[in-house]
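Repro:
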Amino acid sequence: MSTREQLPLPDTLAGRVWPCSGPPPRGRRLHRHDELEFNLVTTGRAGYLVEDRRFEMSPGMMIWLYPEQDHVLVNESPDLAMWVGVFRPSLLRKVCREPGHRVLRQPRPTHPICRRLGGGATASLGRLLSSQSALRDAQRDRINAGLGYVLLEAWAQFDDAEQPSEGTDVHPAVERAARLILNEAEPRPIESLAKEVRLSPAHLSRLFAQQMGVSVTHFRQRCALERFVRAYGTGYRMNLMAAALAAGFGSYAQFHRVFKRHYGFAPAEFRRRVRELV
C-alpha cells in the first residue's frame, strides 16, 4: 500500500512551486496526495514509477501526477534537478473551467501524463516558475493568483509538446518487489523477496534490473538512504551515525560510501544543508 501524504502547505496557499535537487529533506517513498502535481526536469536523469508503468525522465521531460496515482522517483542521478508544482483541488475548481482544462480536475488522468518540452518551452516555463517560487509565503494573494497562471501555462506548454512518452510496462512481480523494498523497515535477503513475489532470485534480479534500470541492491541502497533521511530529520534527535544504523546500514563507512556515490557529496554536507533549512 502507498502512503497518502499530507503536503506541508500553509492553509492560506492554494499550492506551491519550488526547485528540487539532491536528497529530499524528509525522504521519499511510494505515495499519493490530494494535490495535482507536475515535475519538470532541468538537469540529470531519473526513473519515475507511476503505478504499473516506469517513465524515463531527462532534461525537458514533464510529468503530471494525479491524486489517485501512486508514484515515486526510483533511480535519480546525483545531478538531478527539477521544478515541482502542486495545486490544491480548490484552485483546480476555480481556474480549470474550460473544457480543455477540466481534465486537470479528475482524480485519475484521461490523457498521456508525460511529454518532452522543447528547449524554448522549458526555458520560458523555468523563468516563470523561478519568479513564482521567489515569492514569500506572506505574499499569499500574489502567490495564489500566480499559481493559477502557472498551472494553465504549464498545461499549455505540455499540451503543445511533442509525442507523449507512454512509459514502460512493469512486470507485476517487479512492481510488487519494488513496493516491498520501499516499505520494508530493514533489508531482507533477496531469497525472501523472490519467494514473496514467486520468482527465483536469479530471475527476479535479472528482470528487476531490466525493467527498473537499476539492480535490486542499488534500489535497496537508495531506499535505505531514504530511511536515513527520515530518521535523521533535522538532526536534533539523531546524529549521522545513529540514523545510518537505524536505516539498516551495517557501518558508517558503508553508509558514507553509498551516500556519496548516490548524491555526489558527503553526509557532512547534507547535515550542513539540513541545518540551513531549520
